[in-house]
Amino acid sequence: MLLSQTLCLCFALALSYAAPTLHDVMMADHGHDHHEDQAHHSANPDRCDGIEFDAIAPDEKGNSFFFKGDHLWKGFTGPAQVSSAFFMELDDHHHLGHVDAAFRMHNKEKPEDHDHIFLFLDDKVFSYYNHSLEEGYPKDIQLDFPGVPSHLDAAVECPKGDCNSDSVLFFKGEEVYNYDIATQSVKVRQWAHLPNCTSAFRWLEQYYCFHGHNFTRFHPVSGEVNGAYPKDARHYFMSCPKFGHGGDAKVPKCSEVTLDAITSDKSGKTYAFTGRIYMRLDTHRDGKHAFPIARTWKEVTDGVDAVFSYSDKIYIIKGDQVYIYKSAAPSTLIEGYPKSLTEELGIEGPVNAAFVCEDHHIVHIIQGQTMYDIDLSATPRTVAREAPLPISGIEAGMCGPDGIKVFVGSEYYHYETPRILAFSRIRPEPKTITPDMMGCVE
């Protein structure tokens, strides 16, 4: 399942140019002509022209940076800015300020490096956190990454689970250097079937090799490429006129956000559904992004009524039908589905919301202002209990470690347990959906 018809671009905000920095003043004090520096940076590249990126990396906050020459783009929309406005010391050590390669470190065993951005320039490496250069940098690449060559083409992190151990993949020409962070050992491979990568990017647990204005998705261990590649990056990783899908969409106001369903699976992946799109809410390290529902659950083409997770499966309810998918990627529809609500859960539709609490076997189904409890471990499945609710108009619900959230329009109500939701007669104060929750704007 690839980045087809992605709407993720609508969740990044355009950036404005930065004001003169302390670096500009310091350079002027040392005889550096500020006007010469401005002229040096005057050529403002446009990534919609089909350029080739030098490097791509996210920072610790999930902002993705696309580097080209002495400029970069922050996020998937907005104009280019001078790289030294974000990574000031690049110009101190190399006037051109270009970047050969970059990646965000994944190494929880070493907190002093975890989530740092490492930038590679010729034979030097820079380590940044919160856009501040760490003390002692830049260093020779060999001091931090023994066995890794200079003048790299690309780099990308590969956490344990994707690779056999926390690793970094370095690309130079046709060779790929797999660097094991813990042992500092290097294995060199040649992936002849993969184009020479000028930049590489791990995004939403997938790996992308960028070459020219195209990209190819690959497996980080074998280098295997599946699917029709290459693809034009302008359709997927940036907002360009006449390219992509939904590139003109606006960032919604939080007061305009309404949910049709929300759920979290056993692995911690949290999905929110509205209309024909869904958003991963747990991917703060990569930012929040929206996609068509059919991208992941291809048989569900016209939105959802309710979604819940149970026993490593995701149940999607639409109309009087239930679709059951394996939670593990790629999401695969269980053979024999969809089935009717009556056959699967012993109730008739429509359903407004549904949720299951972790390590419990009861699905709580909300229809109108009534909640029905159904034991998923029973055969056949039938309604075990029903209770009137103190709130009307519930459209989505989820049970998490902090309790129950039920959503009504752009607000939600919090209860500690399903029982309190069912039997409380005092309505709590509603809370509003926030930018941190849904990537909206206030």
Automatic annotation (TrEMBL):
GO terms for molecular function: heme transmembrane transporter activity; metal ion binding. Residues 1-18 form the signal peptide. Disulfide bonds join C48-C240, C158-C163, C197-C209, C357-C399. Gene3D superfamilies: Hemopexin-like domain. One of its GO terms (biological process) is intracellular iron ion homeostasis. It is found in: Secreted. Hemopexin repeats lie at residues 50-90, 96-148, 194-240, 256-300, 301-348. Keywords: Disulfide bond, Glycoprotein, Heme, Iron, Metal-binding, Repeat, Secreted, Signal, Transport. Glycans are attached at N196. One of its GO terms (cellular component) is extracellular space. It comes from the Eukaryota. Heme binds at H245, H289. Binds heme and transports it to the liver for breakdown and iron recovery, after which the free hemopexin returns to the circulation. Belongs to the hemopexin family. This is Hemopexin.
